[in-house]
Amino acid sequence: MKECRPCDWFLILCSAKLGITASAEELASLARAVAEGAGFIGSTSPLDSDALAGIDVRRAVGPGIKIGLDASRQVLVISGDPGARAIFAADLQGMATAEDGGHLQIGYFPEHPYLVEESLPIVVDSLHGGMPTR
Questions:
Q1: pLDDT, tens digit only, all 134 positions of the chain
Q2: Pick from 37, 133, 13, 27: nearest CA to 85
Q3: Which of 38, 57, 65, 99 has a 20 to 30 A CA-CA distance from 79?
Q4: Residue in 90, 91, 55 with CA at minimum distance from that of residue 74
């Protein structure tokens, strides 16, 4: 498994949604790991009852991406086939390159372009650019 450099982002488990907050550089790193289908990105935030230790990206047979939580390791797990990972990676890269920051809510609905029904909903927040103007 490819080991990515730890990020100074933090991941928080809140109510029914997982949240990822990251800089543009960190989102781009996550997008690359998702596109490649392998890697572990550790969090440098202190572990407590709400924080996650990192994100584990894995290849899987399709169709689709599953976003899950390995609670015993406090790790968000993203697994999926190459086509679905490419779409998700493009969404993450779009967040990384957006000049006005913002957030991306990702949750399953019937006919979702890449998520499978078993996926947990997540919110990806960008630390750069303030609130979006779009």
A1: 344 444 444 444 434 467 888 888 888 999 999 999 999 988 877 766 667 888 999 999 989 999 999 988 889 999 999 999 999 999 999 888 887 767 888 999 999 999 999 999 998 888 765 544 44
A2: 37
A3: 99
A4: 55
The whole model's pTM is what? Answer: 0.81
**pLDDT for 3:** 42
Kindly list the distances between the CA atom of residue 52 and the CA atoms of 31, 91, 97, 110, 114, in Å, as whole numbers in the listed order: 18, 22, 25, 28, 24
CA distance 58 to 97: 24
Peptide bond into 132 cis (omega under 30): no
DSSP, residue by residue, 60-75: --SSSEEEEEETTTTE
Query: Among residues 36, 39, 38, 8, which one has the least CA distance to residue 23?
Result: 8
- What is the identity of the amino acid at 48? D
Q: Any idea which residue has 């990676």 for tokens?
A: 89
> What are the angstrom distances between the C-alpha of 128 and each of 14, 28, 102, 110?
22, 12, 8, 32
